[in-house]
Each structure stands twice: as C-alpha cells, then as structure tokens.
Design a protein that fits this description.
The complex is a heterodimer. By secondary structure, chain A is mainly α. Chain A has helices at 9-33, 36-44, 49-64, 66-71, 73-101, 109-112, 114-117, 127-153, 168-195, 202-209, 213-218, 221-239, 247-259, 264-274, 280-283, 296-305, 310-314, 321-325, 332-342, 378-390, 408-412, 416-432, 443-451, 462-472, 500-507, 536-550, 563-570, 580-586, and strands spanning 366-369, 395-397, 437-440, 458-461, 483-486, 511-513, 557-560, 576-579. Chain A folds into 4 domains: 68-242, no CATH class; 263-342, Fumarate Reductase Iron-sulfur Protein, Chain B, domain 2; 366-470 and 594-603, Rossmann fold; 475-589, 3-Layer(aba) Sandwich (Rossmann fold). The chains are: A mainly alpha, B alpha/beta. The structure holds flavin-adenine dinucleotide and iron/sulfur cluster (3 copies). One iron/sulfur cluster binds next to strand 12 and helix 4 of chain B.
C-alpha cells in the first residue's frame, strides 16, 4: 500500500525530524562524556534485570508520575494525564495504522493525520475500538491541558504556592503544547462534520458542527485545521530540545543510565536537562522569604543554558529541601556545588592550617567536639559537659583551644580539594588519638565526619548520644509540663536522616508539639554555612518565617539541636530557643549514688564507680 | 487653677521633668509609675557619669522639683484608649480607670538582655556580668562574683557595644550612654581593686557630653585603663573559671586572645514601647524601635495624636540630664498647645 501524503504534513515532519536528530546528538554527547568505567558498567548491564527495573520506573515516573502525585494528587493527575494520554495516542495510533495498512512500518505522519487521510466511517478489524480508544486518550490529554491552563492562573489550586517563572523558549513551546490537542480535536471534529465518523468525542464535535458541513467543506476548513494541527505539533517538536520539555526524553534516559550504574558525576549533564521546571522545589526553598529567583529550578535552568554565574551558584543555603522534594530525584546539591567548584575563587573560604586537635593522649576514648560554632554557644557545650559527667562518661574535648574545622565550609564553598586536604589532616590527627567514639554537637560536623571521613571510630551527633544515654538509663530525666516544638536542623535531618532520636529524647521530658514543617519538610533557619552571600537581614527574614511557622500560642520553648540554628532562631524568636542538651540538663534527675551498670561491650568508657552529684 | 487634667506615664527623669513643669503651672497631674519609688533607672545606678554624683541624690532632687501631683506608685499601665472627645482613658492594674485631657508618655527604655548574645557567656559563666549588674555590685547591693576579692592581680575586661551597633542582635543603633559608662566603671573598678588591670574593647569611643572626654583621658592617664579597638567574638571558661576571650584587634588587624577574671558587658538601651501606644494611640516608631515624634528638630515631643506627648528615652538613648530636660520640654509644648 502506498503511503498517503499531503503538503500539510511538512511542518510536522520538519519539527519531528529535527527533534529526533537533536535527541540523537544529545544522547551521543552524553555518552561520550561518560568515564570509561561508566561506559563499561552501562554496557555490561544492558541485558540484565536492571533494564527491566528501569522500564518499570520509566512507566511509574515518566508516565504515571507517582512522585508528583505524592506532592499533590491534582498536580500528579495533570502530569499523568498529559503524559499517559499522549503516550496512548501514540501507541493506539500505531496499532490503528498497523491494523489498517497491514504494514509494520508506515510514514511517521500516517498515525497522526490518519483521520484526514481516511475520513468518515472506514471499516477494518477493530476500527471502532481504535477510534474509541483514540478519543479516550485525547480526552485524557485534554483534561490535563485544561488543568495546565488553570494552574497558570491559580497555582494554589493544584497544591502549589508558587509556580516557576519561565523563559521564552518555554513560553513558545508551552503555547504550542496548549494548542496541539484542542486543534486536533477541532480538526478531527471538522472532518467528522463533513465526512461523518468519529467516536464519542470527535464524533460528537462533528455532530455539533454538522449543520455547517457544507460551508466547512466549501471553504476547506478541515484542510486548514489539519494544517494548523501540523504547525502547532511540528512547532512543539521543534522547540522541545530547546525548552523545558527536553525533560521528557532526558528523564527517561536518566532513569535508564541510573539503573545501568552510571556514576552521579557523569549523569550531571543529563540531570540538567531532566528538570521539568515543575517548580515543586520552589515551595520548600529556604530563600523564598527573600525572593523567588535563586531557587533550584532557576539554577538548574541557567546551568543548562550555560549562563550560570558564580554569584548564582553561591546564592543558596544548601538546605537540601529542594533535593528532598524533586520528583525527578535530581541531585540538586551536587549540581549547585559543581557550579561553585567552577567559580570557587570568588567566594573562597580560608582553610584552617593549624588545627590543634588535643585528643586524649591519656586514654579518653570518648571525644567530644562542640564544633566551631559551638564556641559561640557556651550554654550548649557546658550542658553537654555536665551531661557527660552525670552519665559517668570520661571524655576529652577535641580542639579545646579551637581552630579546628571539619572541612564542610570549604566543601560547601566549592573548594573540594582544600576540603579533602582538611579531611586528610583531621583524619590523621584523629587516628593518632585513642578515640573510639566521637560525639559532636554540630550537625554540620556530624554530616562531615560520618559521611566524608573514613574513620575507624563511631561518630555520633549529641542527639544520638543523648538517646543512648537516656535509653540505657545512664541519664535519668523527669517529665515536666513544658510545651515545646522541635526544629529539625537541615544537616541533621535531611542531611543525615536523624529525625527520631531527638524526638524520642524530648518526648520523655516535655510535651512535644508537631508541626507541618517538620522532618523532611523542615524549613532552613537561614543561618546555614552553605550560603555566604546571604546578608544578615535576609537571614533574619528567613529565620522569622521559620519561627512563625513553628511557634504557636501554646509553644513555650523552641528546641533545636544545632548551635547555628539556635543562634539564628534565637535572634528573632518570641519564645526561648534552647538546644536539646540544655533541655535534657534541665530535666536531669540527679541521682547522688547511682551505680552505673557494667557494660562489657559498650564503646563508652565509664568511670566504674559511684558518681557523686 | 486649670481644670485640665494631665496624665504622666513613667516617673523616671523624663516623667519627673514633665510632672515638675506641669504641676508648677497649676495643672492637675496624675503620675503613673510601675515601681514603688520614683526615679526610673536612676534607682538602678550607683554613681552617675561624668562626676560620680550618687544617682539616689539626683532622683531625690528631681522628685523634689514637682509640686502637688497625684502619684500612683506600683501602677503598671496596661492600656490607654482615646475617646472621640479627645480624652484619654487610662486603665490601672486594679481595673479602675482614670480620664485625662492630655497624656505624656515617659516610659523609658529597656536594658539589653545580654544572654541574647550567648557567645559572650552571660548567664552561663558567673564571672561575666553586665554594666547594670556592676552598678549594683558597686553600690554594695549585690556581691561581686565570690572568689574575685581574694585574687591579687585581677584582670578585668570591659566589652563595649553589647547589643548595640550589632546587626546580629537586631540593633543597629548606638546606645550613646555605654561608652562613657564603660569609662566610668573602669575607673570605679580600678579604685575598688587597686591591683587590677582593666582592658576595654571598643568600636569607637563616643564621648559626646561635657566632661566625658576628660573622663576618658583620666581613665588612661590616672588609672592605666587600656583601650583596645576590637570586637570580642567569643568567651570560654578555663578549668580555673577564668574567662578566655577571643577578639580581633581592628586597628592592627590581628586576633587577640586574653584571659580575664571578670568581664563586664556594656549593655545597650533598647526600645520598650507598650503595644497600646503603637496600636491604640498611633505612635510611630523609628527603625530601632523607639518612639518617633513628629520630627527630630522642632516637634520631637509631639505626636500625630492630639494631646499625646513623648518624653525622654522612649524616643532613643538619652542621658539623665537630657531625659529630664526633654520631659520639661514636652510639658512646655503641652502648655503651649493648651493655651492656643
Ligand atoms: C548601664 C547604664 C548606666 C547609665 N548611667 C548613666 C549615668 O551615669 N548618667 C546619665 O546621665 N545617664 C546614665 N544612663 C542613662 C539613664 O539611665 C537614662 O538617661 C535615664 O534613665 C532615662 O530616663 P527616662 O525617664 O527617659 O527613662 P527611665 O529611667 O527608663 O524611666 C521610665 C520609667 O517609666 C516606667 N514605666 C514604663 N512603662 C510604664 C507603664 N506602662 N506604666 C507605668 N510605668 C511605666 C518604668 O518603670 C521606668 O521606671 C545609664 C544607662 C545605662 C543603661
Ligand atoms: S529541580 Fe526538580 S522539583 Fe525543581 S523544577 Fe526541576 S524537576 Fe521540578
Ligand atoms: S538547597 Fe535550599 S536554599 Fe538552596 S535552592 Fe534548594 S531549597 Fe533553596
Ligand atoms: S555608646 Fe559606645 S559602647 Fe555604646 S553603643 Fe555607642 S559606641 Fe557602642
């Protein structure tokens, strides 16, 4: 059977083939950018269960958009209906032409313009079913388009506070996209009006238009509509690789390569293009109170088009909220750091050259490190010292004369090499000590010591240590009628997944309020080391916003577990701000002659004796 | 005798200044005051700069300047409203109300809570005290941190600008009084502990008043007080309870580490305006939170609300003499408006 042709398929064909060409080029470039290890790994996994898993995830995220459903069911439906509907149009169209022509290979435009070439009631095996399915899929897409229109007008209706601002390629592509399916409906409806046929949707539109059928035919309105359809569809395809819609193929490729074990570093260029600019990351962004322009979505966009400046890379508190929200699972923190690494000299942090880690030469196996910010919160560190004494733990304080740096500030400012040098230096010092447990009060240090150092010792944040001590009965606490709310520090919560330990300890002592901005959804206090460019006034605005959301009329104390959070929040809070260690000390039941249970396997050194009060 | 009745809120230097002028002009004056004794913050200080006059005596002579007034001590005013006829309704703690034709607000300031700057260790280390605490110690009302007296060569640090000129604590303004208070207290400490050495960390020395500059010179020349331009960044405690101070010498641009036996924080003056003054009586605030008069030059005591006047350090940091004069000025303004 010869393939039908009409001049109106040209705009579509141009758009389609230019898109395909660009996609192939892009994929090749991504592949060439992979390290040889990554390439080998990917090739070795092609015929493996990993590919199957990737396919499952592609369906789940690329079509069904499960992660977006989790953020907001209505937003999820919008994305799902567009993707799923369109996908069905392609698949059903494919089978429709296969059934009709009997050929497996047909001109690309045939399924798309099928009704224009074969209008009216054309009968072949399953034709009614195909027409019905095509209409159903079209209806699904149209419902998504309607929601997309609505979202532009009222983002909150779809469960979002802010919608991303778009740039011109996005706007052009978006406009084409908005018109593709309504125009298709009209084209098919117009054709049905003149020639009959069509299922429940297109047929109905045809029936409605049928009184003017003669007029439509005389003026060849159906032909004009098919031209229009071809232009908007071709236009959309033409713009796709240049706009946010590149995320559709990029996300699928990203999923595949992730499953094929390609390293995160190699995947970065794909990640930049896999961002759909859905804007979900905006709502949780710590910087929202000071402006809607430095958020992850804008950063990723600018990085993709190559006009990211060092300043832009540094305009972020690295709170990790966007990363925990992103439905595509983009590693937004690493992407930002990559930008900082490139422009590192602009906002450099000085490495600390001579750390004096006076670690227990005389046998202290527990080392306490308040962190450099700990020096600014003596209430927290002195509470910790007293708690350690009360628990009968003999400890030495690391870097009592201070000057030590865990390396995270260097790392966060993009100075990866200097950070590594710092880590190596500190590791040596720690290894030379007899330390077995390192307890730190600073979540920033905790993240660094536990995730970036290979230390042969146990690293604990003081919330974890407190939980262990209170759980073991080595510290006994009372319950008061105080009402408190807990602020999850970014680096401890999202950064290290420590959410339960502080809550466990606190709920033994006080009435702990819950909040909608807790755990994963915690708001950054604004004091973060991750963004040196942020001015004090901006930080205070951010802190005030966080406090407003956490504290209500019942709250007596705002508790946190990070010296930086404490300082930042205390500057603006209407209620007292305390560290969990201070609260524990206040609730400590001092037992004058408490016998410490002998623990053979405990890592903690105890004075095996009576502890005086 | 005027039939008009005037209410004065606060009997510190400013409130007393206003009450003295009003009462001597034959108006019926009611003075509402939170504490039992008139004098405001004067009752918290031992000797005043620059001439070491006992603050008590100043309070007494200020109170003696007033004539017949209806004094309500221990009476914290928690609400004032203004009627359509222009009268003020003042609600007293016992629920009783009093009506006045005009109101002078002279509620003063609040001393900065030094525990808000945790890095300085106030409230954590017993040997870190504030200038306000030190006044009580000098007056003998409160003991010095115990072990101090037994020490021979005491090292004393004085920290300026605590809670002032500091964006981090939300106060950009200069509290004006604390530089000279630092100088005054350094001299007093040297007199009290002749073996001591005093080092003061300052940002700028603001010696604006008569006799202040001379006092600053005296402190250096006669009392060997060492003034270091630098900002203290953190304080820690050594095992012996001494205070380890980290600072930066901002003239030489190098870090300083030093140890002290006593650290005195020159706490600033903060706005302490009641809600009703802003929300119900429409008083505007300057950025630092203090009350704003109609303008800074010729009508600083007047407000957009007719019959409402501002006096003293509720408008910004003032010295005792300035507050007293400002109270009298507010009263004069009120009289002029009444007779208009
Ligand atoms: C550490 C320190 C040392 C100082 N030393 C000196 C010095 O040596 N020499 C000097 O000239 N100045 C000194 N000052 C400044 C001096 O304290 C002020 O100039 C003076 O107190 C201002 O007087 P005032 O009347 O405006 O306010 P205040 O003295 O604050 O008086 C206001 C009064 O109003 C009362 N009040 C407030 N609201 C209400 C209400 N709603 N109802 C009832 N009563 C109310 C308050 O209780 C208070 O007693 C010092 C300041 C500080 C911080
Ligand atoms: S980074 Fe993630 S959450 Fe943000 S716009 Fe892109 S895809 Fe959406
Ligand atoms: S890391 Fe935090 S501050 Fe930075 S863009 Fe993401 S949400 Fe915003
Ligand atoms: S008067 Fe001196 S100590 Fe006080 S805030 Fe001003 S500069 Fe600082």
């Amino acid at each position: 059977m010869t393939q039908p042709f009409d001049w109106f398929v040209i705009p579509f064909a141009i758009g389609f083939w230019s898109m395909m060409l660009l996609l192939v080029v892009k994929i090749c470039r991504w592949w060439l950018g992979f390290s040889s290890v990554d390439k080998k790994m990917a090739l070795s996994r092609i015929f493996s269960v990993h590919t199957l898993r990737a396919l499952v995830e592609m369906v789940r995220e690329g079509l069904l958009h499960r992660n977006i459903f989790r953020v907001s069911p209505r937003l999820g439906y919008m994305h799902m209906s567009l993707a799923m509907g369109w996908f069905l149009l392609i698949v059903v169209g494919k089978f429709q032409t296969l059934a009709f022509t009997g050929n497996h290979v047909n001109a690309v435009w045939l399924p798309i313009f099928f009704k224009s070439f074969y209008p009216g009631d054309v009968h072949f095996a399953g034709s009614v079913v195909y027409e019905f399915l095509m209409d159903a899929a079209l209806l699904l897409v149209l419902s998504g388009v309607a929601l997309a229109w609505y979202k532009r007008v009222a983002p909150s209706a779809l469960g979002m506070r802010k919608s991303a601002r778009h740039i011109w390629p996005d706007r052009v592509a978006l406009t084409f996209l908005w018109f593709v399916f309504p125009v298709r409906l009209l084209s098919e409806g117009g054709t049905a009006a003149i020639h009959g046929g069509g299922s429940f949707l297109t047929g109905t539109v045809g029936a409605v238009l049928s009184p003017w059928a003669d007029l439509l035919a005389a003026w060849q309105v159906d032909g004009a509509l098919w031209w229009g359809y071809s232009i908007v569809l071709g236009g959309f395809f033409l713009m796709l690789p240049w706009s946010r819609y590149m995320h559709i193929p990029a996300e699928l490729v990203l999923i595949l390569f992730r499953h094929w074990g390609v390293s995160p570093q190699s995947l970065q260029p794909i990640e930049l293009e896999a961002c759909s600019r859905c804007g979900i990351c905006i709502d949780g962004c710590a910087m929202l109170p000071v402006g809607n322009d430095g958020q992850a979505v804008y950063y990723v966009r600018d990085a993709r088009y190559g006009y990211v400046t060092a300043a832009k890379a540094h305009d972020c508190l690295m709170c990790g909220s966007c990363e925990s929200r992103c439905p595509v699972g983009l590693r937004l923190g690493s992407l930002r750091l990559e930008g900082r690494r490139k422009g590192a000299s602009d906002w450099a942090v000085n490495p600390v050259e001579s750390a004096s880690v006076a670690v227990g030469a005389n046998g202290g196996r527990v080392v306490y490190f308040p962190g450099c910010v700990g020096a600014l919160t003596p209430a927290v560190t002195s509470a910790m010292r007293r708690l350690m004494q009360a628990a009968g733990v003999s400890f030495v304080e690391m870097d009592a004369n201070n000057g030590m740096c865990c390396g995270r500030p260097l790392f966060l400012s993009g100075q990866a090499d200097a950070a590594r040098a710092q880590v190596a230096q500190n590791s040596q010092l720690l290894a030379a000590s007899e330390a077995q447990v390192l307890v730190t009060s600073c979540p920033v240090c905790y993240k660094m010591f536990s995730q970036y150092y290979q230390l042969p010792i146990t690293v604990m944040h003081h919330t974890q240590w407190l939980k262990q001590m209170v759980g073991d009965g080595r510290l006994q606490v009372s319950h008061s009628d105080a009402v408190m709310v807990y602020h999850d520090p970014c680096e401890l919560g999202r950064g290290c997944g420590v959410y339960d330990e502080p809550r466990d300890v606190l709920s033994r002592m006080v009435t702990l309020q819950s909040s909608s901005d807790q755990r994963q959804a915690s708001l950054c206090c604004g004091g973060s080391l991750g963004g040196y460019r942020m001015k004090d006034a901006g930080r205070q605005q951010i802190a005030s916003h966080a406090v407003d959301r956490l504290v209500d009329a019942r709250t007596q104390t705002l508790v946190t577990a990070c010296p930086m959070c404490k300082k930042t929040l205390a500057a603006v809070s209407p209620v007292k701000v305390k560290d969990i260690a201070e609260v524990t000390l206040e609730h400590l039941v001092l037992l004058p002659f408490k016998k410490i249970p002998h623990q053979e396997k405990s890592l903690l050194v105890t004075k095996q004796e009576l502890v005086g009060a | 005798m005027h039939t008009k009745k005037i209410a004065v809120i606060g009997a510190g230097p400013a409130g007393l200044g206003a009450a003295s002028v009003l009462s001597r002009n034959g108006l019926r004056v009611s003075v509402f005051h939170r504490e039992a004794a008139a004098g405001g913050h004067l009752n918290d200080w031992a000797w005043l700069f620059p001439r070491f006059v006992p603050a008590r005596d100043v309070a007494v002579s200020m109170a003696a300047e007033t004539r017949q007034v209806d004094f309500h001590p221990g009476c914290h005013i928690a609400g004032v409203s203004r009627h359509a006829n222009g009268q003020f309704k003042i609600v007293m703690p016992d629920g009783q109300t009093e009506v006045a034709d005009a109101l002078v607000y002279a509620g003063g300031f609040r001393v900065f809570d030094a525990s808000r700057k945790e890095e300085l260790g106030y409230g954590i280390y017993p040997r870190v005290v504030t200038s306000a605490d030190l006044e009580k110690m000098l007056a003998g009302e409160v003991p010095f941190p115990v072990e101090l007296l037994q020490q021979q060569a005491l090292r004393i640090g004085v920290v300026h600008c605590v809670g002032s000129r500091d964006e981090k604590s939300g106060n950009r303004h200069c509290s004006r009084m604390c530089c000279v208070t630092g100088v005054k207290q350094s001299i007093e400490l040297r007199k009290r502990f002749p073996n001591s050495r005093v080092t003061a960390f300052y940002m700028d020395m603001r010696m604006f008043g008569n006799g202040y500059e001379e006092l600053y010179l005296e402190a250096q020349r006669d009392w060997q007080v060492l003034f270091v331009r630098g900002r203290v960044s953190e304080v820690a405690e050594s095992d012996e309870g001494r205070l380890r101070v980290k600072a930066e010498d901002t003239l030489l641009g190098r870090p300083i580490r030093d140890e002290f036996d006593l650290l005195v924080l020159m706490v600033g003056m903060e706005a302490d305006l009641p809600k009703w003054l802003i929300e119900d009586l429409g008083v505007k605030q300057i950025d630092a939170g203090f009350a704003r008069g109609n303008d800074e030059l010729v009508a600083s005591n007047r407000t957009p609300t007719r019959g409402l006047y501002l006096a003293g350090s509720c408008k910004g940091p003032l010295s005792v003499a300035e507050a007293w004069n400002d109270g009298q000025a507010a009263a004069q303004q009120l009289l002029l408006d009444l007779n208009r």
